[in-house]
Amino acid sequence: MRKPAVDKTVAEIVRELKETSAAAVSDYREQSLKIHGLICAKCGREFDFKSRSLLTVHHKDGNRGNNPPDGSNWENLCIYCHDDEHSRGLLGDYIKGKDASGEMHWKKRAK
Ligand SMILES: [Zn+2]
Ligand SMILES: [Zn+2]
To answer: Which ligand has the minimum distance to the alpha carbon of residue 62?
Structure first.
């Protein structure tokens, strides 16, 4: 007996995304998808009408209130790349802080 467990999980995530995003976000989301197309700007994955709920809109300057109608602040990212985009930024800061203290330590030792 085969159960597509992964597919089911994704489908459930998508359903949740739909429910939470439908009310508030849909306006600029639709516009961004129209302007930039159903393609992830990062990994280049293409989406069709059915799978387009996996495509999200990222605000380049991080400000969700900044929604110019020409789409210059929007980037279409799949949910995976979008997640990556945000966690990488946080992680980058974290690592930078660590490196800075590590560097100081090394300079001290080198003298
Ligand atoms: Zn992607
Ligand atoms: Zn984002």
So the answer is: 2
Token digits of residue 43: 């990994």
SS3 70: coil
The predicted pLDDT at position 76 comes to: 97
Tell me the pLDDT tens digit for each residue of 49-94.
Answer: 899 999 999 999 989 999 999 999 999 999 999 999 988 765 555 5
Report d(CA 71, CA 40) in Å as an integer.
Answer: 15
Tell how far the Cα of 28 is from the centroid of ligand 2, in angstroms: 13
Tell whether pTM > 0.85.
no
Residue with tokens 């400000």: 63
Handedness of CA 87, 27, 52, 73 (dihedral sign): negative
Q: How far is CA 73 from CA 21, 32, 56, in A?
A: 19, 9, 13
Please state the domain extents for the chain. Answer: 5-79
* Residue 59 alpha carbon to ligand 2 centre in Å: 5
- Is 76:55 a contact under the CB 8 Å cutoff? yes
